[in-house]
Amino acid sequence: MVDVITYITKKSHKPLILVPVILMILSLLYLGIFGLNQGVDLKGGTLVTLELKEQMSETDVTNTIKSGLGAAEVETSLSGNTATVTISGDVDQAQFEQKFSDKFNILSFKSVGALLSEAAMGQIAYALLFAFVFMAITVFYVFRDPVPSLAIILSAICNLSIAVGSMSLFGIPLSVASVGALLMLIGYGVDTDILLTTRLLKRTDGDLDDRAEGACKTGITLTISALASMVVLFIVVKIFIPSAQVLEDISAVLIMGLISDLLSTWLMNLGILKWHMERGGHN
Fold first, then answer.
1. pTM (2 decimals)?
2. What mean pLDDT comes out for the span 163-188?
């Protein structure tokens, strides 16, 4: 890993800026074409946890419920003989039990109303916009230089874009849990960007490459530690607690977001800042 850090910080920082930029563009294109599914807590619906009475695949469970209820959308997550099923619209529990009593035992059954309306989603978008603006103002106030401010904002946008594009790619729905994970991701990403910017612009010990290498070692160690904990959480939930969909969604989003943070901070933001300082910026 030391050789990789040395290559990033001392040998080829300018071309590497393009890597997260290209990934961001591809993520936005994929998101624009295929869109992002909304979770049941956003659009409303019914969540059912079932115990299977006979061996069935996810497709079998989905098709059985879809044909029995005439539901337009049914999603199934299967672990062993336990299935977690999301059904669009309200479903009567007594009717469900009557239709499928020979195939399933109901472990839990709840109807969920839409918690976040379109207006609320608009407010979240405004909150994110203001967060980015105030982050830029704060960074500009601290460093008195517009380039680090713009670099941090661009890095955060890149990080968020790749994470949301990955959600679309892997079928992770936009839900209350995933929105919370994205907000956590913004905060974590800005922390690593501030670490990098402070080391390069405020410190005077050593030359620029040495400060960049030190910041990179510290930041990558922190991110890999957080990434490892999220991977462990995802595996534990997937294997032992398959009904804990909220934890699975949060850990999956954070795994993808932390990987994108490594790219956006240590390839793009580092490259921009070094390029800026080599051209005489922040004197």
1. 0.81
2. 87
